[in-house]
Known about the structure:
This protein has one domain: Rossmann fold (3-Layer(aba) Sandwich), CATH 3.40.50.450. Helix content is 37%, strand content 18%. The protein is built from five helices and six strands, in the order E-H-E-H-E-H-E-H-E-H-E. The chain has helices spanning 26-44, 58-68, 95-107, 122-132, 145-152; strands at 6-9, 49-52, 79-86, 110-115, 136-139, 156-159. Strands 4-3-2-1-5-6 form a six-stranded parallel sheet, with helices on both faces. Helix 2 (58-68) links the parallel strand 2 (49-52) and strand 3 (79-86). It is globular and about 40 Å long.
Amino acid sequence: MGNKKICAVTGKDIWDIGNGTSETYYKNVDIKLTLAQRILELIQGGVTDFLCNAEHGFPLWAAEIILSHRNLEGLPPFRLHLVMPHENQAEEWDDDVHERLYSVHEQSDAALILYRQYRDDCYENSERFMIDHCDVLLTDDTRTFAAQYAELHGKSILVCEKLERI
């Protein structure tokens, strides 16, 4: 992989985060602020590529933040690669979230769609693919399949926890 340092991003979808589905609920905003800081630290620490499945919740927020960090001056270049589990991933999402995914897709540097149709194993397979190709995993939960798979394969795991408040 040369000088590349690759970070896979996985996490809970909006329904499993446990703070309701309102993205403006203060606890979800706090997660996004913490996530923005962690992503900035990863870029400053040498991450050149991010892999993300952009599932509605933590992963989509991460993809949007990664893209927004491109506007920050003084950072080294970095890329976003989507690893979408299936072609119709956003089919049942609300229209605004559906449009956000497509915006992320358009702005990403590359996109891989693993399956045309949904399969029972498509999400796990997208996580396997990302972890097999990464150096570090950024996640919001160590109890997930992705975190356990990353640990089993000797990957570094960074858990996005709340920032310490003064």
